[in-house]
């Protein structure tokens, strides 16, 4: 092997060694944080049953973003949710709705009002120029009493992102999720019997 080839081989080995020594950093993990934001003053209500589901793409832990109304969602390469967004939002709904009264799981509480919630959007949406973005959360809810539909509502909330990156999107989605949960709580307050009052009385 001549000197030139030896130098090339040595350079390749050195580069490989450097690459092996620099393990890729694990992705940043995010969740919705502690539920500490204030909620609207609403009357206590009867217990409810929460039946919850989300569109399939929200079962993955990717932090989703898109530009405007584009049909092409993307996920940040180095950022992930600690749990699937579907589960994070379900937990936050239970936490915030529980401030007005007990929230039971699907299949429990026979005879109680049942709220069927479907999470349809949970993503960071950028303006066309990339200079601003919002966290966008959308869901629809159907209220049933004795298996009869007594009301339904579509909720869509947005909150501005302070920074145009995954961290900014997460913070905005946290605020939008809390706002959506509070809107749902307010909607239920006018349709589910108050605590101490028998449903149907």
Automatic annotation (TrEMBL):
Family annotation (InterPro entries): ABC_trans_aux (IPR005586)
Keywords attached to this entry: Signal
Keyword Glycoprotein carried by entry: no
Annotated ranges, domain ABC-type transport auxiliary lipoprotein component: 39-185
Signal peptide start-end: 1-24
Superkingdom of the organism of origin: Bacteria
Protein's recorded name: ABC-type transport auxiliary lipoprotein component domain-containing protein
Organism, as annotated: Bordetella genomosp. 6
């Amino acid at each position: 092997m001549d000197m030139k080839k030896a130098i090339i081989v040595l350079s390749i080995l050195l580069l490989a060694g450097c690459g092996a020594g620099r393990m890729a950093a694990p992705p940043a993990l995010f969740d919705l944080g502690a539920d500490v934001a204030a909620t609207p003053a609403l009357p206590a209500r009867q217990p409810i049953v929460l039946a919850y589901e989300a569109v399939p793409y929200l079962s993955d832990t990717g932090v989703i973003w898109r530009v405007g109304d584009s049909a092409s969602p993307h996920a940040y390469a180095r950022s992930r949710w600690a749990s699937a967004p579907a589960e994070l939002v379900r937990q936050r709904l239970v936490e915030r709705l529980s401030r007005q009264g007990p929230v039971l799981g699907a299949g429990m509480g026979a005879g109680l009002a049942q709220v069927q919630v479907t999470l349809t959007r949970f993503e960071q949406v950028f303006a066309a120029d990339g200079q601003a973005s919002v966290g966008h959360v959308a869901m629809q809810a159907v209220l049933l009493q004795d298996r009869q539909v007594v009301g339904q509502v579509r909720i869509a909330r947005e909150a501005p992102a302070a920074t145009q990156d995954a961290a900014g999107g997460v913070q905005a989605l946290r605020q939008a999720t809390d706002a959506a949960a509070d809107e749902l709580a307010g909607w239920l307050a006018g349709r589910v019997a108050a605590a101490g009052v028998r449903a149907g009385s």
